[in-house]
User: Which sequence fits this backbone?
């Protein structure tokens, strides 16, 4: 068909006709649009990964989750900061009418009006390094009473009251909370990174499955074209009595089998593209997309650095649990022996019936107290709780080390497998050349009727399988590298071309 021709064939012909007929201009536009629409868009592996990291639903979900986690972290950290609050109540008004018996036996109704209001300012400053807390309070109260037209007004002003409370065990809840909040944020970031590496792994898998399936379809098409030519030559040889009928029939069956296999591959390819589009949020099509066959990747793996990065990741994943258990153990240890705290304060207050005279009635007060609390019962249960807390902490430490050891073995196996894949890849490339030579030899032997068709068919099948093995070997390197990236929460191992 004409639209399959290149533009360098079409344009010169049409250009010479433009002066004769204006309709050729419309034909030119039509041919340009057909040629453009029939072209395929080519993508490298890096192109696909870049698009996935910008368009996939999973990436957008993780981006939103990252923003949520960041705001949660800021909220939690803000809860540890000094707090200042202002409270205002009132004006609160109440009125009562009470019957009062008089001396002459009559009843008089007495009206009482009450109006009151309160304004207070409070500030609390926790000290993380001691576990103590400074508090500053200020308060103004107004009370107005109108009883039978006798107005009484009183003002009460607490200029300030500064106090400090210090637990004598010096256990700081805020210090532990701050460490746990930071560890939680690091853990959330690592979990999001793991999700993105899983997305990358799934994308790599689908990419190489599509490449393998497309490569097989192309190889089958070449085989079909080659076999059809050989079939035509064989029919002439059969007519001349130089070809066995069984070979001719086997060749026809093989051509039909390839056609069926190709149709099945195309259906599987469509399903793979649907999965890729669902995973990535993109709109790739089977006919309009060409994935470029990747070469064997160039990679650099520093084993010691990889192990160090992996251990750091595991430490951070377990840090929240370890800190929480350590805090609980420390609290239970102090709880066994009771509690003691020292409180000290100084304040200034005043009260008067006239607001202007408040300054004349200032009173300064000081206070200090030492509080002790000892449990009388429950010693045995508290001791058991403390011992269980210590055992749970030891259990977490052992679990962390066990997981670290198993991950180390897996990491070393992945690195070893990647290095072996290089040798496998070189072997398969050499095998590819040998199979091509073997096919040429057996094709000539078949045409001279020195071997049957099944022997030639077997070599052709091995060529397709060898090409699939090459693609799978390359895929294994990328997939294993992605596993290492996930285990170490880094992506510097693979130096992609």
Assistant:
């Amino acid at each position: 068909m004409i639209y399959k021709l290149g533009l360098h064939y079409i344009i010169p012909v049409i250009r010479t006709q433009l002066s004769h007929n204006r309709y050729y201009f419309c034909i030119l536009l039509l041919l340009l649009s057909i040629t453009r629409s029939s072209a395929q868009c080519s993508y490298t592996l890096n192109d696909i990964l870049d698009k996935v990291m910008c368009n996939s639903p999973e990436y957008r979900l993780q981006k939103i989750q990252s923003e949520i986690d960041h705001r949660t972290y800021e909220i939690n950290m803000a809860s540890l900061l000094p707090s200042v609050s202002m409270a205002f109540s009132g004006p609160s008004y109440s009125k009562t009418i009470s019957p009062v018996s008089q001396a002459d036996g009559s009843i008089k109704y007495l009206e009482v009006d009450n109006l009151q209001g309160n304004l207070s300012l409070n500030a609390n400053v926790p000290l993380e390094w001691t576990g103590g807390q400074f508090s500053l309070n200020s308060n103004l109260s107004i009370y107005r009473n109108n009883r039978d037209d006798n107005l009484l007004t009183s003002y009460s002003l607490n200029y300030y009251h500064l106090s400090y409370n210090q637990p004598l065990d010096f256990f700081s809840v805020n210090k532990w909370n701050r460490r746990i909040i930071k560890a939680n944020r690091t853990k959330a970031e690592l979990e999001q990174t793991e999700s993105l590496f899983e997305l990358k792994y799934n994308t790599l898998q689908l990419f190489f499955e599509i490449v393998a399936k497309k490569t097989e379809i192309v190889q089958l098409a070449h085989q079909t074209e080659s076999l059809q030519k050989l079939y035509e030559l064989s029919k002439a040889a059969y007519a001349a009595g130089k070809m066995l009928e069984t070979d001719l029939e086997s060749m026809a069956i093989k051509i039909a089998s390839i056609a069926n296999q190709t149709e099945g591959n195309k259906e599987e390819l469509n399903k793979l593209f649907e999965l890729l589009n669902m995973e990535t949020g993109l709109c790739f099509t089977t006919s309009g997309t060409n994935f470029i066959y990747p070469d064997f990747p160039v990679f650099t793996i520093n084993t010691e650095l990889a192990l160090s990065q992996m251990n750091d990741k595991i430490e951070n994943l377990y840090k929240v649990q370890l800190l929480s258990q350590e805090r609980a153990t420390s609290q239970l240890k102090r709880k066994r022996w009771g509690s003691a705290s020292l409180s000290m304060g100084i304040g200034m207050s005043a009260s008067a019936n006239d607001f202007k005279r408040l300054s004349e009635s200032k009173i300064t007060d000081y206070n200090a107290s030492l509080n002790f609390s000892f449990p009388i019962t429950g010693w045995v249960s508290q001791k058991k709780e403390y011992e269980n807390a210590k055992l749970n902490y030891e259990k977490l430490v052992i679990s962390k080390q066990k997981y670290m050891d198993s991950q180390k073995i897996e990491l070393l196996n992945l690195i070893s497998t990647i290095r072996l894949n290089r040798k496998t890849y070189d072997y398969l490339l050499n095998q590819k050349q040998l199979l091509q030579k073997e096919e040429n030899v057996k094709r000539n032997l078949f045409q001279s009727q020195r071997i049957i068709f099944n022997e030639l068919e077997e070599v052709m099948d091995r060529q397709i399988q060898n090409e699939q093995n090459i693609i799978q070997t390359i895929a294994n390197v990328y997939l294993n590298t992605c596993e290492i990236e996930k285990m170490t929460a880094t992506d510097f191992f693979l130096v992609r071309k």
